[in-house]
Amino acid sequence: MSQAAVLPQQVATRRWRRGAPARVPYVVIALYALVALIGPLVIDYDPVHTPLTDRLLAPGSQLSSGGVAWLGTDALGRDILAQVVYGARTSLTIGLATVLVACLVGVTIGVVAGYARGWLDAVLARITDVLQAFPAILLAIVIAGVFARSVPVVVLSLSVTAWISFARVTRGVALSLRERAWVDAARVMGVPVRSIIVRHVLPFTVGPVVALATLEFALVVLAEAGLSFLGIGLPTGAVSWGQTIANGQQYLETAWWISTLPGIALSLLIINMGILGDQLTARYGQRRTRS
Amino acid sequence: MVVRRLLIGVFVMWGAASVIFVIVRAAPGDPAAVFLGPDATKEQIARLTATLGLDKPLFEQYVRYLGDVLRLDFGESYRLGRPAMEAVFERLPATVDLTLTATAIAVVAGLALGLVAGSRPGGAVDRVVSAATIALQSFPTFWVGIMLVLTFALGLRLLPSAGVGTPAHLVLPAVTLAFPFTAIVARLTRSSVTESMREPYVQTARSKGLSERQVLLGHALRNSLIPVVTIVGLQMGALMGGAVIVENVFAWPGLGSLVVDAVANRDYAVVQAVTLLIAGIVMVLNIVADVLYIRLDPRIRTEARS
Description:
The complex is a heterodimer of chains A (about 290) and B (about 300).
Chain A: H1 3-42, E1 61-62, E2 68-69, H2 80-116, H3 118-131, H4 136-146, H5 151-177, H6 181-188, H7 193-201, H8 206-229, H9 241-248, H10 257-284
Chain B: H1 2-26, H2 31-36, H3 42-51, H4 58-70, E1 76-77, E2 82-83, H5 84-119, H6 124-138, H7 141-155, H8 168-197, H9 200-207, H10 212-234, H11 236-249, H12 255-264, H13 268-296, H14 298-305
Antiparallel strand pairs in B: 1-2
Helix pairs in contact in B: 1-4, 1-13, 5-6, 5-8, 5-10, 5-11, 5-13, 6-8, 7-8, 7-11, 8-10, 8-11, 9-10, 10-13, 11-12, 12-13, 13-14
């Protein structure tokens, strides 16, 4: 066997091995996205349909309808697997919507404040001071609890604090860019401020913002689960991991799976989001502690 | 320096009070009708609206509200039938117990984990600890609480699953709340220990012939304590937020279970009192951490003076 025939293969294997663990979060997150997208099309779930003969069945039990409850059933005979799948859709939808809103608001405010400085920047600093006096989850509980139950209200209640970190990061980037040569050149040539911001400042915020968005997504999904665990925010028909975990709390002794399994689903997603966020931050990010 | 911090603090409290005013006023439903319950007559509602000043222009209501906040008077809780502030102060000690114990656990465990991980960066222990900190930070606290109950209260029957009374009741809620903060302290300690292990004074200590243990505890750890103090102060908001959730898992009679109950029942007097009290605590502790940070580190102390 000649060396030349073996080497490229070895190199490829080695590269794959080194790269493989780093790709795990992408695969896991893609899997969650897939489940959230097509899971509800494959599995039927009706929160109002409560076959009481099937209540509190252990994982793997036979249902009265003939099917198998792979993850067991809850106290009302509803399938846990279906709740995990539908819960994934709820969590990902709210997470994406909130990060989108927070990102749009935060990046706009941050980039303008960092570029313009002056009173605008000072106002931003004071607003964040005030909002950060409240624990984020407490503000979300109050806002989501006081207004009518709905998904948009939950998104709003979580966005109220989530935009701050986006504003802070983009402000930092904009602040460091405004003195750079190409920005000066654009200014001297009389390019309007709006175009300078959009074409010469904004593109540089993309890396840090994507890294931050991943971490924020994890925080938002956790916060949403917390809200629905407390029974605040989502409309009664909605299925959410936090709600299923809360429902199982009083049956812990007899049916551990109700609270345990959705929690594992939630934890796995957050862990992978966190790892991915750390990877991206190491690559593109600014240090988050810098203000 | 301190005066400036305090001035910002006063501003922040005014802002926080205003945010709560806006949220409560924007909420659907008539506060007077909520207060009196479903059986109230129109005349009763109208009379209460007048006494509460809810028929006045919004700005006048706002000024009056700010005055009430200054006097710590948030009005009567319609559910508890007594001043909201009284109920809130009654619940405060339980939350203080919980958060202080959790902080102590997080600092001790986090320092220990960070120290063993940071003393040999890249080693097996380091990798295990980093993996553990990611997990600790990612688990939803309410789920961690339920899993601990499942294991230690229902499975091993070692500890009570909920409620208060004995010190044993405090263990599970405090450990649950400490989970994410242990991870934060461990990460921070690890990075500052590895950093200071490269500093000249650690080399000096080593060349003096001190044992590795003495170098770690006497030199590397001591300098890592300063950022830990700061992070504990800065994480106060997150800690109080975590307490709100944890208290509800364990039926812990603190501010967190009070505020969730009040929100669910539209008891706005209590909601306002709790949120502003928590905002005040967070703000004061942030200032304390800032000032302590400057006091503790001689390098920054001289910098701040010059």
